[in-house]
Specification:
By secondary structure, the chain is an alpha/beta fold. It contains 8 helices and 7 strands. A 4-stranded parallel beta sheet has the order 1-7-5-6, with helices on both faces. The chain has a 3-stranded antiparallel beta sheet with strand order 2-4-3, with no helix packed on it. The longest helix has 20 residues.
C-alpha cells in the first residue's frame, strides 16, 4: 500500500530528513499463505472440482450463509469473507491484486529457501546477498540521510531491507530507548556519546544509533490518536501498523517499513470460510483497513 496525504508535520523531525514522499509498506506473510483461498477464482469450475471441501463457496450459493461466501470483486475473482474489510478499498480503486506471480526457477517448495529468494529479489541462489528493498533505498538519491529511512517493526532487520543503507529495527516505539532510571538517561546518553568520539569506525554507527533513539524517543505513542475513526486490531499486526502510521505522520524520514505476519503454514488445519487461516485473514484485513483509513 502506497499513500501519503494529509500527514501531520511534527517539530522534532531530524534535520537531515529529506522532504516527505511516498512510503512503501511491505507486509510479508510467513509460511506460504494459500492465495487461492484469499483471492478466490469463484468463476472457475476447476477450482471447486479440485477443492471440494476446501474451496470457498461462490457468492451466489444460497445454500450457504452469506457470511461464509466469497465476496465478489469482478464476477470471476472474489475475496475470502474474512477479507471483506478490504472491499471498500477495492471499490475506491485503491486496492490492486496481482495473482499467480512468482519465480519459476530454483524453487523446491521449501518454506525456507523460497522466502529467502523472495526477500533478496532473486530467482536463484546466485546474486547479491542484500535485500531488494535495501538495494532500492541505495538506488535513490533523495537527500534523505535519516536512520529511519527503512524500519522493520521487529527485533531484527528484515532480510529484504539489508544492504548498504543504514536501517533500524524495533518492536515497539515506546521501548526503543535506553533502559534504567529516567533521570539518569541524559547522563547515560552523554557518556555514550563521549565514548564514541575516538575516531574509531564504530563512531558513526554509534552516532546514528543515538540519533535514532533521540528521534524515536521524542514520539509519544500513548498520545497517538488514529485519524478518521480508524480502529486497529488489538494484536501484534495491528500494533505494528499503528506504529508505522505514527512514524509516517511524524515526518522522521521514513521511506520503507517492513512487517511480518507469521503462522500461515496451516497444513490440514487451514479450514475454509472459517478456521485458522480465516482468523489470520481477519487480522490482516482489519489491520490494513484501519491503516488505510488512518493515513488517507
Amino acid at each position: 500500500m502506497i499513500t501519503r496525504r494529509n500527514f501531520l508535520q511534527l517539530s522534532f523531525a531530524p534535520k537531515n530528513t529529506a522532504p516527505r514522499g511516498d512510503v512503501f509498506v511491505y507486509v510479508f506473510l510467513r509460511g506460504a499463505a494459500d492465495a487461492l483461498n484469499m483471492v478466490v477464482p469463484h468463476g472457475e469450475d476447476e477450482y471447486y472440482r479440485v477443492r471440494p471441501t476446501l474451496g470457498i463457496p461462490r457468492p451466489d450459493d444460497v445454500r450457504i450463509s452469506s457470511a461464509l461466501r466469497t465476496v465478489d470483486l469482478d464476477g470471476f475473482f472474489g475475496l475470502h469473507p474474512a477479507l471483506s474489510p478490504l472491499l471498500p478499498v477495492w471499490q475506491e480503486k485503491e486496492l490492486a491484486i496481482v495473482h499467480a506471480v512468482g519465480a519459476t526457477t530454483d524453487f523446491d517448495h521449501s518454506h525456507f529457501k523460497a522466502p529467502a529468494l523472495i526477500e533478496r529479489g532473486l530467482d536463484s541462489a546466485q546474486g547479491p546477498a542484500s535485500g531488494w528493498l535495501g538495494r532500492h533505498l541505495a538506488s535513490l538519491d533523495t537527500g534523505n540521510h535519516s536512520p529511519l529511512r527503512g524500519v522493520t517493526i521487529s527485533e531484527r532487520i528484515a532480510p529484504s531491507l539489508r544492504g548498504s543503507v543504514p536501517v533500524t529495527a524495533f518492536r515497539s516505539i515506546a521501548e526503543y530507548r535506553l533502559s534504567g532510571n529516567a533521570r539518569a538517561i541524559p547522563q547515560m546518553q552523554s557518556a555514550l556519546s563521549a565514548l564514541y568520539r575516538t575516531g574509531d569506525p564504530l563512531d558513526a554507527i554509534a552516532a546514528e544509533a543515538m540519533d535514532t533513539m533521540r528521534t524515536v524517543g521524542a514520539l509519544e505513542p500513548e498520545k497517538y490518536r488514529p485519524a478518521h475513526g480508524a480502529a486497529y486490531p488489538d494484536d501484534e499486526f495491528g500494533h505494528g501498523l499503528r506504529q508505522v502510521a505514527m512514524l509516517m505522520k511524524a515526518e522522521v524520514g521514513l521511506e520503507v517499513a517492513c512487517l511480518d505476519v507469521g503462522n500461515w503454514d496451516t497444513h490440514i488445519a487451514q479450514g475454509g470460510s472459517e478456521g485458522w487461516m480465516a482468523s489470520l485473514m481477519a487480522s490482516l484485513a482489519g489491520g490494513l483497513a484501519a491503516f488505510y483509513a488512518d493515513v488517507t
